[in-house]
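Tutorial, part two.
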Amino acid sequence: MNAEQQKRLFHLFTAHDSDSLTESEHDELQETLRENAEARQLWFVHQDIEVGLHAHLSQASTETSKRARRTSWGSWRPLTAAAAGLALGLFSATFVLGYVVPSLQTRIELFSDSFESGTAPLVDGKQPMEVGHWSGDYTEFTGAMGRVKPASGKQMLRFVRADYEGQHLPESFSSDSFRLLDLRPHKKELGEGTAVVRLSALFNGDLSATEGPFSCVLKLYALDADFVKERQSGAFTGSIRERMLANSSSTRVRLDGNPATWQKAGNELRLPPETDFLMIQVGMSNDSKSKTEPRDTFPAHYVDRVQVVLAHVPEVTLP
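Running the prediction step on this input gives:
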């Protein structure tokens, strides 16, 4: 399968996920899955990612997540069932289910925070080299403000400014907060190179009180223990990008301007086996490009329900 065919296949997969397939595209996808074994393999991998890391992990409550994990083979979309049946027609549907979505059985929640407890975030501009707290630009924990209420519970994180204590940066336009997670207790999960982490969060803003447009920022950095130790001791003071093992930045999600709705953003990163720590970054960016209005303040912008989950996703075999 060449690059153009893979690109076309990815378009059909994503259109299927969003229920936007035309009748001709639906027929094309069915025919491709029927005739092409490599396409079926890529379909399985795509479904593992979309179903295992997106659809199930986007559930708002624990009970909803439990119902999602109990979803039966018979309730799958017909096209998914057809593709799996073609690939493994001699085996039972139960075996197919176990083959297609193994990651659902080994999903691990690494971190979850709705800002209901814990110390206030540090605003020293530094990326934390110790686990247990948020640190970065000016942010604060707050309850309901104006027309915006927490997505759950009584608190949320408010982005305040695009600078930090002792450093005024009027040219800055992104307010960011960081948190360090220790993955060493899960080291055995990383050994085969199939471990993928997904960072997700809910964002909101009352755009009637501000200029815009504004967008959400989610980033992931895989780090080793030597780097963290050097940063803790002060032996290394350079940028995290100089020593990171891998990183990933989300596609920016624009806020819809409705304070009654929270918007979900997500980001994923395949972890190198030598990863010891994971740095997560949540932020808000003022994308107005205005030369006359200040872009470094965020009077009504929030994040809630930050979650990091680890699962196993096979690598896509390329030609």
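The helical segments are 3-17, 23-35, 37-55, 62-69, 78-87, 93-100, 225-233. In part three we will examine how such features are distributed along the chain.
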